[in-house]
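Hello,

I think I submitted the pyridoxal-5'-phosphate job twice by accident. Can you confirm which output corresponds to this input? Input:
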Amino acid sequence: MFNYGYFSFASKEELLTKAAEYWNPGKVKFWQDAGTPMVIDRREGYFLHDMTGKRLIDLHLNGGTYNFGHRHPELVEVLKSGLDYFDIGNHWFPSVARAAFAEKLVATTPHMKYAIFGAGGAEAVELAIKTARYATKRKKIVSIIKGYHGHSGLSVATGDERFSKIFLADRPEEFFQVPFNDPDALEQELKKGDVAAFIIETIPATYGFPMPEDGYLKACQDLCHKYGAKFISDEVQTGLMRTGVMWGWQGYGLKPDIFVCGKGLGGGIYPVSACMVTEECGQWQVEDGAAHISTAGGSELGCLVGHHVLEMLQRPEIISNIDFVANFFARSMAEMMARHSDLFVGVRQRGLVLGLEFDHPEGAIAVSRALYENGVWAIFSSLDKRVLQFKPGVVKDVELCQEIMDRFDAAMPRARQLLRSMRRVA
Amino acid sequence: MDGGARLNVPDRDLSSAHMKVGRAAWAAKYYQTFDREAVLRIAEAVAKAAFDRAAEFAELAVEETGYGVVEHKTIKNRLCTHDLLDHYRDMDLVTPRVDEDRKIIELPKPAGVIFALAPVTNPVATVYYKSILAILSRNAIVLSPHPMAKQSSVAAARAVAEAAEAAGAPSGLIQCVEEPSVPLVEEIMASDKINVIMATGGNMMVRAAYSSGNPALGVGPGNAVAFVDPSAQVDAAAKCLVDSKSFDNSILCTNESICLTLEENFDNVKRALRTAGAHVCNEEDTDRLRSYLWGDKGFNLEAIGKSATWIAERAGIRVSPTAKVLVPVVPKPGQDDLLFKEKLCPVLTLTAAVDFQQAVTFAKHAAKRGAGHSAAFHGNDQTHLVAFSQAMPVYRVVVNAPCSQGAAGFATYLPPSFMIGTGYSGRSSIGENVGPQHLVHWTKIAFGSDVPANLEVVDLSQTTQTPAPTASPMATVPDPSPQTDRNEIRQLILEELRSLKGSL
Ligand SMILES: Cc1ncc(COP(=O)(O)O)c(C=O)c1O
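Support: Only one job matched these inputs. Its output is below.
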């Protein structure tokens, strides 16, 4: 019996039936078919517990949402203390939490002028695109093929058509896509003189973290400026120290005109996102401050948590820990690849952002399942299923990291077996 | 106006301290594979850096705490650098030991993360000492200073940590809590992420260390009795006593608290003490001193580590400006006089027993207040020395030398130490002067006694490594592989690994 006080379920099966019936049959079926039918029950630190009681180490972290792990005690304390004083606030009015958080965000990126808040990543992307259009008085937005910026109206139009066509939300006349790591293709579009902005994830997550080639991002940024377009960095998965610096673009010598962040900004306990803009881009806030409205955007509770998230990320102990974790996985993955070179064929890494390549078009699905069976939860890349996303958090400790590698090693024979049967079917 | 914060803010210091422990565990993981050469290189670098700044930090410590004497603190700090290292240089805690006769191989296993308290009395010396012990034993250390000495302790720890890192230690090997507090120390001591506690400080802290649930090396307070036997060279003994008591104004737990002699020798000792620079109190002075040092709330903290003349003035006693030590006199050795308790200041209580038997009985009881600690014996009568040592519940008897320095290994051949093990008598797990060997355990590979075994051919070279700097996968380093030449890179990595491991 799963009695939660407010509701109860007799069993995991009952929950799955009801979830399919009332919530989302497609998602329920998908995970069952994939062999990873997880229903997260308890969670703490970097651990998830399925309703069956099975414990999983979380290396998905929802793209960095759980950068500090689940329900980090310090963040929970902050939110609880915030609840004794604030609520989501009134978006119309200036507020102490929003002003303080905006100031703290701007301080991490001095060339930016304003922080504009939302509740989710897609909303921040929405703001970024609107801001670029306002600043350039142009409409066209260029993104990369297999880029991913969320599922709201404008953001979904930048992405893979799998997510837009179904809702008739693709807008081929306003949104163009160019191949990744191909500055020339971008220039062809920019040359036309009608592009408002080029938006790109600093390392494309849903595409499996392919690394930008040396100088690629900088070339894109320079090209944008050459042709009067804005350069937008999507930092939803690469921001917040995940690549070893506060914002991923800082490590590539960039100065985006606009960038967006979300996910881990709310510590995984209260949603908040931000779109950072330069003074020039943010002029609409002077012209008509109410041009964009979001009741839950920049909620005061979210701002309080976000403020503390930034403070924690700036501590020297955390920065050093990130370095240790990143180095550990760099070494360990190289060793693991040598041990299992028949299927494990590549590692893409920058800091705590790793993509592991497997030698099969759907290799990462098999590995994800094999890891799941061995107590580790890591998700494949939706847009490149050869690649497993492997995303350790900033406060992982040495023992847990070692345990992950031990489990990884133990899971490889099972992955091999799964792949063999997949090959037979194919 | 300001009614304090409207919101409750989590204890940032506590949270940072937990993070330091996590960081230390990473450092320990790598450091415990370092080879002996690398360990000694780091130890040398730290000893040198610590020596170079010993005087500066001594000054800082005296300024911050108001305890002790800069020149003496400088000496103590320096003793915990090259001298300490020299003492332990040949103690190999890194290389596996092979005993072919007993068919036993021993592999050293460092503790991991040490959580170490540094007391207000010897802040810098303790930071130095515990850091060097950690380095020699291949452990990481998180130091927690006494709140009253945090600035000097943090500064010293930083200097030591920087020197260690510059010499190749993993970052985070030596860290120091910047804002210590009692709740913080209690919580970190109980953390399952630390492997051993080195507790020096007040009794409460030491007991808390032992109650934490973690392995602990804790040492208690002292109350050293110096017995001046009739066989002693009184003048030499008195000189030792005055030197010892005036050294850093007695702010060492090894300092003598009581000078005990026999009645037949009483006047002789008094005279010798006077000659050596002590002010021997008359009855009235003794009373004044007693009531000054023990107010309503126990020992008067302001007297700790102050000079004899300073204390005399506060107590209302007229002494010569050259007086180095104050000697209150309690003619009969009873147990109840407050002056027989521990005094971390240059006050040495003089008393006399009717005979050797009574002296030993008294000394043994007085020493219970600093049980397991130290005592001193002045004289040449071996029978008395053995009888005294056998009766005393202490683990060090310093002979014909100043006890402050002697018990801490600086005027004797005892191991130099700022952790004087008070053993079972003092409710401690350790009765010796703590050294790096106490921070390592050994895995014993024991072959069957009747089974033939050739230990000579066992390859132990993989138990340590020459530390190699690793390329950082962080944003500050240019990217590796564009996808196109991924195979090439992979090949390179594989080759590198093969060459590392010999074969795959
Ligand atoms: C890079 C990137 N941008 C934007 C988003 C959208 O964020 P949200 O789901 O909070 O709307 C995501 C979500 O996965 C993302 O990974």
